[in-house]
Every structure is written in structure tokens, then in C-alpha cells.
Specification:
With 258 residues, this protein is an alpha/beta fold. The chain has helices spanning 3-14, 31-46, 78-87, 97-107, 138-146, 161-167, 172-175, 185-207, 224-240, and strands at residues 17-24, 55-62, 66-70, 123-130, 149-156, 176-179, 213-219, 249-255. Strand 7, helix 9 and strand 8 form a beta-alpha-beta unit.
């Protein structure tokens, strides 16, 4: 078994993440294609370990407006989550993707909505869309990614790939998928789950607390101005670190000729 496959198998058993799906519900989709989206969401949820301390799922649908189908905090077990996936309705309308992405940032990826970003749980958004957006997507997507959210893009049919590239994380070969029709969504399930699990593990490692004992030895022969500069640097460092008996510890000493 390849290292990546081993890693994914372990991740599937023990992954922890907050994942929100943003689904295009515009009139261009059509009811039969929308049912394919529902089937895709169901298959992805089935492949994840759902629970309050494991994977949480949220869902938003957008057209001219963005609709809060359910938040990360709403369904903490797989049974109720699958029931919600099976029953949310097709909204229809236009395609304002940028507004919808901002909606995710302000209404979903917050502690009040069930996000565990404050506990260093990886944050993931999956955007599924076809066609062009009627509003700007670049700035909203940048704001979402700058908040630490990993963004995946799935384009269907005549989806604007350049637009999707500006939404998803980089590189596109990892975070962007393009398919010819909604029936092909099912083929993406395994790839999405594999990429998500690797991204979750990578982000967990990046976000993990790392502790150390740091000791500074300062030359007492520096000028008063230089000493204040050093003091300022160390103060900023101390404010940025998690200082404590079981966390980072800092030590300081000065040396000179006497």
C-alpha cells in the first residue's frame, strides 16, 4: 500500500474537520441534476466519520440569494445529517457566487454556527457550481481563504474554470475538479474524500501547538537604544507565543566582562 493510501485510511478513521458545502441552486441546474447533487452529498457524508468531536457538516445553497440549509452545529450524527441532505429543497434563481462565499464566511465559519476553528480544527469549504457568476468572486474567496478555510471547487458542464481557479486553493490539480455533467459527480467522491483527508492531516500538523524552552543570552555591552530594540522584539515574541508551565517557556540572561 502506498504511503498516501495508508495516510487516507488512517484519516478516514480519525479525521476531525468542519466542512461546509456551498451548492449552486440556480435555475440553470434543473431538478434532475439537482438530485444528482443530493446523491453526491449523501455519498460523501456516508464516507465520513460524523460526530460532535469528529467531522461536522454544514450546507448552504445559493442562487440570487444564499440559503442557510443547515449549520455545522445542527446535525451531530449521521442519521439526522443524511435526513437533512435528503429533504432540503431546490431553490432556483440566478447565480451570485461571490455573495454566497461571503455568506459562508460570516454565517458558517463562526463559533456561533458550530465552527471549531478556535480549537484548531481544519476548516473546509466545497463549492459546487456551473456557469458564470453574476458577481465578483475573487475578493470574497480571498477573504474566505485568508480566514484559514481550505476551499475546494467543483465545476460542472459550462462552469467558468478561470473563475473556479480564483475561488479554490492552490494548486488547482489538488483543489479543483471539472466534470462534464452532474451524473459524473459520483466519480468525484473518492477523489474528494482522499484530497480532503490529506488536507485535513496537513492542516492539523500546521496548526498543532509546538512547545519549546527558549533561552536568550544578551550582550550587556549594547547601547541603550539597541537594548530597547531587543526588549521590544522579545515582548512581541512573548505576546505571540503560548506561554505557560506546559507550553513555551522563555529565559533571559545578560553577559559582559564582569
Amino acid at each position: 500500500m502506498e504511503p498516501t493510501e495508508t495516510r487516507c485510511a488512517e484519516c478516514a478513521k480519525a479525521s476531525v474537520a468542519d466542512m461546509v458545502f456551498l451548492v449552486d441552486g440556480s435555475s440553470s441546474i434543473g431538478l434532475s441534476n439537482f438530485q444528482e447533487v443530493r446523491k453526491f452529498l449523501r455519498s460523501v457524508v456516508t464516507g465520513l466519520d460524523i460526530g460532535p468531536d469528529k467531522v461536522r457538516i454544514g450546507l448552504a445553497q445559493y442562487s440570487d440569494e444564499t440559503y442557510q440549509e443547515f449549520l455545522l452545529k445542527d446535525h451531530m450524527d449521521k442519521t439526522s445529517l443524511l435526513e437533512a441532505v435528503d429533504t432540503f429543497k431546490y431553490r432556483t434563481g440566478g447565480t451570485e457566487t461571490g455573495k454566497a462565499i461571503d455568506f459562508l464566511r460570516t454565517q458558517y465559519f463562526t463559533e456561533e454556527a458550530g465552527s471549531r476553528a478556535g480549537k484548531r480544527v481544519p476548516q473546509i469549504a466545497v463549492v459546487i457550481k456551473d456557469g458564470d457568476s453574476t458577481d465578483d468572486v475573487i475578493a470574497p474567496a480571498q477573504r474566505l481563504r485568508q480566514q484559514g478555510v481550505i476551499v475546494f471547487g467543483i465545476g460542472v458542464g459550462a462552469a467558468n474554470l478561470q473563475e473556479l481557479e480564483s475561488i479554490a486553493n492552490w494548486p488547482p490539480e489538488h483543489f479543483l475538479s471539472s466534470i462534464s455533467n452532474y451524473a459524473a459527480l459520483q466519480k468525484l467522491k473518492d477523489r474528494l474524500l482522499k484530497t480532503v483527508c490529506i488536507s485535513v492531516e496537513d492542516q492539523k500538523q500546521a496548526l498543532a501547538e509546538r512547545f519549546a524552552d527558549i533561552f536568550f543570552l544578551v550582550d550587556s555591552g549594547v547601547t541603550a537604544a539597541e537594548f530597547q530594540q531587543i526588549r521590544s522584539i522579545l515582548t512581541r515574541l512573548a505576546n505571540q507565543l503560548n506561554i505557560g508551565a506546559s507550553a513555551y517557556r522563555l529565559g533571559w540572561a545578560q553577559y559582559g566582562q564582569k
